[in-house]
Amino acid sequence: MTLTCQTRLESYRKMQPHLAKRRREVYNYILEETRKGNSVTDREIAKGLGRPINTVDNRRGDLVKMGLVVAYGCKFDVETRRRAVAWKAEASK
Q1: Given its phi and psi angles, is residue 23 left (phi above 0), alpha (psi -120 to 50 degrees) or beta?
Q2: Whole-prediction pTM value?
Q3: Handedness of CA 61, 57, 42, 85 (dihedral sign)
């Protein structure tokens, strides 16, 4: 893990108690998938957490603003038949 990744991970751990519950759930899901080498779309996050997509995309947006999650590329969404942005946790890069 690079020094930048270590410092971001340390920052996240310090912020963890202050993150709202759903934001923390979304981040932990993205982080877990990133550690497996996967990127995830908002729809995949929603399905993985068993939550409606409208409760996920805003929380993920907050995490992007905080610098904890970054756009990684695009994936084809079979349900919408469109490309969707895929996300990864920044701390694990």
Answers
A1: alpha
A2: 0.76
A3: negative
Whether residue 89 contacts residue 3, with contact meaning beta carbons closer than 8 Å, is answered with no
CB 69 within 8 A of CB 33: no
> What is the distance, to the nearest Å, from the Cα of residue 11 to the centroid of all Cα atoms in its chain?
16
Residue 10 is encoded by which pair of tokens?
């340390």
Token pair listed for 70: 């970054």
Q: Model confidence over 22-71: pLDDT tens digits?
A: 899 999 999 999 999 999 999 999 999 999 999 899 999 999 998 899 99
Domain 3-92 fold = Arc Repressor Mutant, subunit A (1.10.10)
Task: List all residues 6 or more positions away from 80 whose beta carbon is below 8 Å from its beta carbon.
Answer: 43
Chain centre distance of CA 15: 15
Q: Where are the domains of the chain?
A: 3-92
